[in-house]
Amino acid sequence: MARSISYREAINEALAQEMERDPAVVVLGEDNAGGAGAPGEDDAWGGVLGVTKGLYHRFPDRVLDTPISESAFIGAAVGAATRGLRPVAELMFIDFMGVCFDQIFNQAAKFRYMFGGKAVTPVVIRAMYGAGLRAAAQHSQAMYPVFTSVPGLKVVLPSSAYEAKGLMIQAIRDDDPVIFCEHKAMYDTVGEVPQESYTIPFGEANVVREGGDATVVALGRMVSVAEEAADELAQAGVQCEIVDPRTTSPLDADTILESVEQTGRLVVVDEAGPRCGLAADISALVAREAFGALQAPIGTVTAPHTPVPFSPSLEDLYIPDAQQVAAAVKSVVDWKR
Amino acid sequence: MSDERIGRVAMPKWGLSMKTGKITEWIAAEGDEVEEGDDLAEIDTDKIAGTLEASEGGVLRRIVAEAGTDAPVGCTIAVVAPAEVPDAEIDAVVAEAREQLARGVPEEDDGPRTETAEVGGRAISYASLGDGDEVVVLVHGYGGDKNSWLFVQEPLAAGRTVHALDLPGHGASAKDVGDGSLEFLADTVLGFLDAVGARSAHLVGHSLGGAVVTAAAARAPGRVRSLTLVSPAGYGPEADADYLRGFAAAGTRRELKPQLLKLFADESQVNRQLVDDLLKYKRLDGVDAALAALLRTLLGEDGRPALDVTGLLGVTPVAAVWGAQDRIIPPSNAASLRAAGAGVRVVEGAGHMAHMEAPAAVVAAVEEALKGS
Amino acid sequence: MHDKALLRAYRTMRTIREFEERLHSEFATGDIPGFVHLYAGEEASATGVCAHLDDHRDTIASTHRGHGHCIAKNVDVKAMMAEIYGRTTGSCHGKGGSMHIADLSKGMLGANGIVGGGPPLICGAALAAKLRGEGGVAVAFFGDGGSNQGTTLESLNLATVWNLPAVFIAENNGYAEATAATWSVGGGSIAARAAAFGMPGRTVDGFDFFAVHEAAAEAVERARNGGGPTLIEVQLTRYYGHFEGDQQTYRAGEVQQARNELDCLKRFRDRVTGDGTLTAAQLDQIDAEVARLIDDAVAEAKAAPLPTRADLETDVYIQY
């Protein structure tokens, strides 16, 4: 039975159901229970934004608080994964990758290759990304392009509560290391989610809406921004096809290319920056593989090449919005040689 | 209260998730004399397109919602009344309807109620519509669910209780299918009758569901008052085993869509939402195992269709409907039913999903079976 | 110790020594690609610690100087040699090389090219062992260089906080690359750092197999019984440079002195033959067998096929 729950609840439910199903699943991270050793509640936080709340009481041995010590506990999650556990470690803000990246890209990502295909490292690293909460430069960046560039990692960007649950269960059951990127401004967004466990395969894009005039590839929270733009454009008679890749690694190139073959036009919308990101990557893909289908230059809508600013007036300008997306679509639709 | 001779044509609720429908075309025009069952309008939902039929005869006096309008379920979209009802009275009803449409809020939601029964320790989800002593139970086919009856449940529910259930392994029911045998499924249907307090019922089955209701009638002839079979499985040797295997194996949109196209005469019925909904179902834990177990009932070890229920037909009255363009279980399979004396309607313009593509024919068949009982 | 265990320990140390000495001479021929960091001189450490571990439930993580740890944890010697030669018959099918030899089936979580890379992983392996409840332990080997890495210090802390069945073996061979430990280890003692993390810390003579064996016995026993982590600083000398080709201009004459006066194999031999536990003939026989094994390993590695284009893009993911 599907019912409406939030993105946060969807992730929590996925964790709870997988912990119930598989005793190898452990959850760890700073304040994932919260209040360890403190005089108050022993399940005080459930993670800094409450995603793991309640799990500690159900699985006291398998929800571990950690010191603020990302290298040690992310590395521990990786090591535990090689020895039979299925850890889900919370990095908290994705910007904190800077203090533990070695454990992710040099250890987890490379084990299988370096060890000649004999390592199995089913670790999930949850990390919150994204601007919009006035959290400033070190707590807001969309860092997933960095992970996407690392062979050996899978990178997941759920764009709704339904996607969040199914992709999380898939991430936990997946035998490769997965970086699970949660947009922190989406935790309270609500959607229909089945109560039962289900999985969404990696590398399969979701065609969020069909339309013949332009393909809009949007990632994570930008999917809803693209939908808003598409609603506006529909009133002007422009029909957008919105493609949500769901995972940036693996990337469902086929669905993107098929869509562009139909529409002849592409706009990529990404909250990450313009350099070495998914907008550049997907644009290059389409230019390389579907050049003949293109009827206009490829449009991109991204954040600027700056850190995320603090002041609300600046942060609002930083995040791509529906008007920018609509303008970009219009410009590719109206483009004339 | 307005004149009770004035009939309001409401936006129907086809399926649980339907909130609004878009009138794509009015087939009947203002001033047309319409009979019950005549096509009035084409309506598009986010799941499927269908034809709205007149539920009573009269003159289509006024169209409230023009083609292109998105109307909430339950909103009055047209008014049907005998010619002698004065225009002023019609105008009053239309004005009220327009206001309601502008507000976008239907007066009340009288769509199917979804409930759960426990049968043999398994949760069986079902949708009920209507209220009456006579009970009709609709049983979907392999990979289907209760929502596939969206176009026939409402017309059948006038004066009757119509339940559409999810078989084990399907829809929102428990995903454990026991040994996956026909007998198990038939016993589930009979157990369902117990659970809803129905001593007897008229059973309607599509495809695998057709075989299931046939087996149920054979196991409890006293409780099954009639059978209506829509492209039933088990009545002939010809069935597209590749479809069954392909459906069971499909894990992605790319793999599933080509299979679903085979189900319909009009392939445009297979829209994104239909594919997405089926993928969402197929991704639930336990569904793969359930479909695999049922596949072993449908196909023999040689991979060919193995189900045979022709020997199970007894004294229960039977009506059958077949889509002329059915590519999964072609209408040639109807020979055995004809030989057994069942009335068989073969409907042009319908494929394997006659209850979706030609719901009026299915409703008519059920009515015929009910009369014959 | 039983005779059998002593013979096994001697065979392990001799195998490591022979393996490394042979690599030293083979490297000079130019047949071995890349970087090779030799463990010769440090044999008593890996052997004395791993003597207490079993393949199934116990895990070790190693360093860039990892051949000795691999051999002591029962990784196949011929496969190791083939790996160092970059051959498909190698432990990692030629994809890892000297710095990434691993065999998870033996509980060997890999040599590691990142100084300080192993200790966090070992916290995880120890957590897995703890939750499994079979008394398994996990051992991190690192050097004096690794002892200054934040990852190592974080791991010592986490191991205490989580009360993990972990043992940290700091192999202090005196140099992090070309930098002296006496200069780079603040406070002078790695073992003394244990106190700051609330765990026992101990310094042992790494030339003395029996001293290492005894200290490790106590630490492993404590870990197996839920007593938490231990830090052991093993003091030793590496007989060769940081890597093969290192001219070692930063060193004085300590290697020759160590080889002559302190060598772990010599000391072991003197002790067990001196007290009559084992005979020289028994040990000589092992020496001969090991020499043949290493000869064969080199010959087989050189004859084995190199990986091809078909291998380039495999083994990145389990499914992609």
From TrEMBL, chain A:
Residue span, Transketolase-like pyrimidine-binding domain: 5-189
Domain of life assignment: Bacteria
Pfam annotation, one family: Transketolase_C
Keyword vocabulary terms for this entry: Oxidoreductase
GO function terms (MF aspect): magnesium ion binding; oxidoreductase activity
InterPro entries cross-referenced by the UniProt entry: THDP-binding (IPR029061), Transketo_C/PFOR_II (IPR009014), Transketolase-like_Pyr-bd (IPR005475), Transketolase_C (IPR033248)
Protein's UniProt name: Alpha-ketoacid dehydrogenase subunit beta
Species for this entry: Streptomyces coryli
From TrEMBL, chain B:
Domain Lipoyl-binding stretches: 6-81
UniProt keyword annotations, A-Z: Transferase
Alphabetized GO MF terms: transferase activity
Pfam families in UniProt: Abhydrolase_1, Biotin_lipoyl
Protein name per its UniProtKB record: Acetoin dehydrogenase dihydrolipoyllysine-residue acetyltransferase subunit
TrEMBL record, chain C:
Annotated keywords: Oxidoreductase, Thiamine pyrophosphate
CDD domains according to UniProt: TPP_E1_PDC_ADC_BCADC
InterPro entries documented for this protein: DH_E1, PDH_E1_Alpha_Subunit, THDP-binding
Domain Dehydrogenase E1 component stretches: 12-307
Cofactor(s) named in the record: thiamine diphosphate
Pfam family, one: E1_dh
Any GO BP: pyruvate decarboxylation to acetyl-CoA
Keyword Calcium on entry: no
Gene Ontology MF: a single term: pyruvate dehydrogenase (acetyl-transferring) activity
Domain of life: Bacteria
Protein name: Thiamine pyrophosphate-dependent dehydrogenase E1 component subunit alpha
Organism field: Streptomyces coryli
